[in-house]
Amino acid sequence: MMFRLRSVNSCLRRLLHGGAVTRDQVLEQLQLLWKFQRDRPDMLRTVDLIKSHQQFQTLRVLAENKIDLMDDFMLIDILYAFLRLNMEPHDSLIQQLVSEAWLRIDRFPMASLSKFAVCLNDQHLQHSPLMGRITSIVNERLPTIDDARILAALMISVSSLVSPQLRDALISRADHLLHTTDPSNYNIPRRMVQFLRNIKYIHRPLLERCNEIFLRNIPTLDAVNLSIILGLYQSLQFKNCDFRLAAKQRLTELIDSSIDPFSFTKLFVALAPMATPEIRERLENTALLLADELNAQQALAVAEALEEIQSRNLSLMNKIASVIQRNLHLYKSVEVARITQALFLLQYQNPELFATLRNILIKFLEHSVFPYELTRVLSMLPCPRLEEAVVSRVDAVVEQCNLSELNTISFAVAKWVRNDQSYRHNTHSKYVRLLQTLNRCGHERLQTANRLDLLLDELKYVSGEWFEEMLLDETMITLQRMIDQINWTNVPKLAFFLNRINHLSPPLMDRIASVTVEHIHKIHYSETYATLLPFSVLNYDPPQVDELYDACIKRFTPHLSSFDPHLLVLLAYSLAVADHFPEELIRVIFSIDFLGKLDSQLETLSNALNMRTRLRLMELNRAVSLECPEYQVPWFHERYCQQLHRKGSGSVSPVQQQIHKLLGEVLGGINCVQMAVFTPYFYTIDFECKLDKHLKPLSYIEPSTLQISDRGKVHWDTSSLENIRDELPTGAQRVAVDFLDSKYFCKNTHHMKGEALMRKRHLEILGYRVVQIPHFEWNSMELSTQDAWKEYLKKKIFR
């Protein structure tokens, strides 16, 4: 570094004394210094040493005195170079360079405009009027941009200011230019994905095109870039099996070479969540060795990764917590919130650290204008009461919050209410007033909403009791008011939301169906899953039901090989619930190649998604075996189901115990009814009884294999898992009696959901007559006596 500073010394002397050196040589010296730093690892960079050197200060003064003489290219290049060397935005040189650039901005070529936009982003000026002017210029000159690198940089820079129209135009231009770009340059598509992340917009065709380029470059990608790409995908909730498997393999290869804190942290964050237990243990051991060398940001990243994998490595947690504790003064408020959340969810026991974190958060909160994230974390901490200043601060800014933020605050308030004993004796407490404010702001926001797309973005993660009790009805009114805004771009979002809240709305679903049928060729094939989900799960047939399913099946069938395996399983299961079994789809899923790829992918998914996908595959296998024997798909989940039931510890509700007792009385003895019976293909029915051809109850020779503890816990006799059933006399029938609680019905109506109907179909195929007891009938005013309940059961069973 000192050698390079000496090498510019003679040049500086000639510049200062008016020699023959050109202005470009100032830029050359800056570029020399920056290139030297850029090519070194972060930990070996000496930018601070360079900035404090006398010759660098001379170079800085020289540049400031020559601004008027610089041409447009040199002006921006020098600004860019000084910022790369960590010059402060408030430095007079930086401010003068920016001011001069603003005066010339309309004549900049796109390359200089792009670099200038990057410089403004570096100075956190992405919302400034100057960036607004750049956004306007981009909008005007977009068709003239033929360099994908320039476009990608501009996309990121203006991302916070783009309109929906400019967003679509940028994506279209990016997709066009990607086809002319050198496929070995993965930085360009990475920036385009970053643009999508910044605007929180999933454009699958562009994502898939970028993903193809990433896959081509896997052998050359390092841990840092792989970590960045995986992080962007996670933010966008974009899962691509091929990339995850390739990235996992490449990251595993890089373990031995990622030995410095910077690269190892990136590798740990990216690989640990999808690594095998053996690799994960190896990573944790290395992290333990490097922990003391981690800086504040690296310790935070490792802590969040440990929370994601639910690590139980106490030694490593203690090390990371120690690094965090000595660097607490370096963290921003949001980072302290992230630390608190990670350690809390890890169930890390350190009351002193949590008390310190809580005090820091409260101080931040007292001055924050964005309290929703901090209140959510504060609500997790054990604390009997909350300071008045915090509640007052939340109350002061709550009217600025959107629905998602209001929902987050509602979670915090609910926790405070549960923790604060004084609440029980003060019905007019500060919490009640705050909840009333939340309710008012939520209703006002819904009533004044006028754009469906923005509303759906706010509703994406909204859930919980407060929303369901206070805002759900108003939300449905608002959505129906905007019914004319439903189009092919927002159909999947709206359909997924309706399914998530378990709410049946025929007007909205009819509109979704008609838009889908008309514009199915515009809807991405993978989004047919979200689009069909509420129709199958909520068991609703719109007027165009046949056209809807046919259109979606025809849309996705040519692309079966492009689906992520787990998504294809979920799609096929949702179709099976609705009694649709496309042969080509079924044959693909139950092929050896597909199942092998699915197994590989499941290793990279979260535990929750892994278990859900395995369960859905079993249920799909059962449905196909029962309903489509002509496909000749074997039933291969016997052992899986046995393991599932042995692991489970079911419980019997008081209502089920009540029905069991009453059935014994109705049927003439408790030996005439069995409880929690396994059927072939491993359905568990609440109660089973047998009737002869004259509808007389038959007793069971073997007693029930089910034992129930005093607390209602079920203890299974594992010999009952062999699906052995006694033969029925001629003309006799088995009756399956199922109590259907609220989960089997839509929340806003007594309409039965699709899974309950599929279960009924399957039990009937297995030879049962199915009696279903809806919870709202059993708990109704008409059935409030023992005699009424028994008469109800008699009508159901002996009809």
UniProtKB/TrEMBL annotation:
One of its GO terms (cellular component) is ribonucleoprotein granule. GO terms for molecular function: kinase activity; RNA binding. SMART domains: RAP. It is found in: Mitochondrion. It comes from the Eukaryota. GO terms for biological process: mitochondrial RNA processing; regulation of mitochondrial mRNA stability. Pfam families: FAST_1, FAST_2, RAP. Signal peptide: none annotated. Residues 735-795 form the RAP domain. The keyword Transferase applies. Keywords: Kinase, Mitochondrion, Transferase. This is FAST kinase domain-containing protein 1, mitochondrial isoform X2.
